[in-house]
């Protein structure tokens, strides 16, 4: 799946990727849309259980490496500072147009894992304090600690997307950020963070339907903001900004993947697969005991 | 359930609460242990779905109150600073002896909710930096922001439990903490945090079996540490420390609940119920639109 969905290393043409397509979906599931959906949902459940086991191994290994007295939580920026060679954490970066399905993907895919080992951070418009720093400052503070699976709901890529389209900074500033992002991500991957960068790719028509749903269902009004339509009016500009970001920052160490996302069940299945392949690479296992197991059993049973 | 499981407002006798009992479990489920277990697991699934909906309303309401420009994540200590009257977040505080089932409860109960709206923090031995501050310092920094469901995996109560039993601080210090905790929790509940404090109550025999399982199954070795047996040797001291903490800090604003936890399926069902009753109290709903719905529909469909 990673090779199939990967873009970059050249110009990216988003218009050539059909948001309703289902690359990599096995033929066994390729009958009616209803049966494919049911099959994919069941697969996500199974994949989620497998991801949960791998997530536990990742966590256990990091705990063992940190030593017994290490705090098991309340992660701080200091804990998350990179500095180790072997990949010891995974970071899923999710980007999409409004209504692209970031929240739904997190609910379904991350929701299948153990919440104790998840480190989810969402990035809205930067606060006044955040604006006083470099654009990567708040990103660094949000990195997952060793052993965790991080999820970024939006990310530093907003700083070359919305910042560019809405002219929040001069062109020279956002143009320089491609290299800054690449350097930052090289630093991350070199120090134990395995990046999985995903753009959820929806069509203009599908966004329209989802926005209409938010305007029709009162339980969805809270997800809508009038500025969503202003962004929609600049659809072409955003697609161009995405294409350039994917092209400029799709590196071998941290490639970009485009997941066709008009079909939610395919989207979830594809993202779960990308995570699964990433975990498989890490060749995870449970750490060996750092104590004398037989002696402890004697202590316990004699006690 | 809250009234049934509540302790405090007088001396607490943990020995009088059977860790294998199942208070509040409906008679319909009271046949064989196997069928009760299946029934409870299914109920937790259903309760989880309901909790997920209520969690979304809590989140949506907080988002609407914060205004459209508010960052939707990357919670900071400043975001979490109390200051509002109406309850706008829930904080589940979990305490238990080793192997008491805190992690399992989080996986099963919190895992049924949307991970985007969860704020889970675990507290291990304080770091050097944390020890330079008041014991509540790291707790304040870990509070959930408005709209979130927080879970504390251990908490400030360790500072009157392990700190007392292991003599980490002088008696005068930990004795003073009961009042400090009560003042702190009064401040929290007065400013929008609804506390759900739960002690998972297991028996000495059940702990022995679970420790043996961790020593027997190599995939569980990482959860074991030889110091677990040292704590087990002081079981009586810990039970006494728990009893006094529950008694001294079981207030009307922030009561303590003891959940019999030898049976994992009952434990999960009871905790899910406590959360459900807490959410029901909040009388949640979706916020009304703060924009002209008809006008936005026209804009969308005309575009």
UniProtKB/TrEMBL annotation, chains A, B:
- Tell me where in this chain the Polyphosphate kinase-2-related domain is found: 88-279
Protein name listed in UniProt: Polyphosphate kinase-2-related domain-containing protein
One annotated GO molecular function: phosphotransferase activity, phosphate group as acceptor
Pfam families attached here?
Answer: PPK2
Which GO terms fall under biological process for this protein?
polyphosphate metabolic process
SUPFAM superfamilies attached here? P-loop containing nucleoside triphosphate hydrolases
The record, for InterPro entries, names: P-loop_NTPase, PPK2-rel_1, PPK2-related
């Amino acid at each position: 799946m990673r090779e199939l969905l990967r873009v970059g290393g050249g110009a990216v043409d988003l218009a050539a990727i059909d948001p309703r397509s289902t690359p990599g979906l096995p033929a066994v599931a390729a009958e009616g849309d209803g049966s494919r959906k049911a099959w994919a949902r069941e697969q996500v459940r199974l994949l989620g259980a497998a991801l949960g086991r791998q997530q536990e191994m990742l966590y256990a290994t990091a705990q063992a490496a940190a030593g017994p007295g290490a705090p098991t939580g309340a992660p701080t920026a200091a804990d998350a500072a990179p500095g180790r060679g072997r990949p010891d954490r995974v970071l899923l970066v999710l980007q999409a147009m409004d209504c692209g399905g970031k929240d739904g993907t997190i609910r379904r895919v991350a929701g299948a894992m153990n919440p104790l080992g998840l480190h989810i951070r969402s990035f809205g418009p930067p606060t006044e304090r955040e604006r006083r720093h470099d654009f990567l400052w708040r990103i660094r503070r949000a990195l997952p600690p060793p052993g965790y699976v991080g999820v970024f709901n939006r990310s530093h890529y907003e700083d070359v997307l919305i910042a560019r389209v809405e002219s929040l900074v001069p062109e020279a500033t956002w143009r320089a950020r491609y290299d800054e992002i690449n350097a930052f991500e090289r630093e991350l991957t070199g120090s134990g963070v395995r990046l999985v960068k995903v753009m959820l790719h929806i069509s203009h028509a599908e966004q329209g339907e989802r926005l209409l749903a938010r305007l029709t269902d009162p339980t969805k009004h809270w997800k809508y903001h009038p500025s969503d339509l202003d962004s929609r009016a600049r659809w072409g500009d955003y697609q161009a900004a995405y294409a350039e970001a994917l092209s400029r920052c799709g590196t071998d160490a941290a490639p970009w993947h485009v997941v066709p996302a008009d079909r939610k069940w395919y989207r979830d299945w594809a993202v779960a697969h990308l995570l699964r392949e990433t975990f498989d690479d890490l060749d995870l296992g449970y750490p060996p005991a750092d104590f004398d197991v037989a002696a402890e059993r004697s202590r316990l049973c004699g006690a």
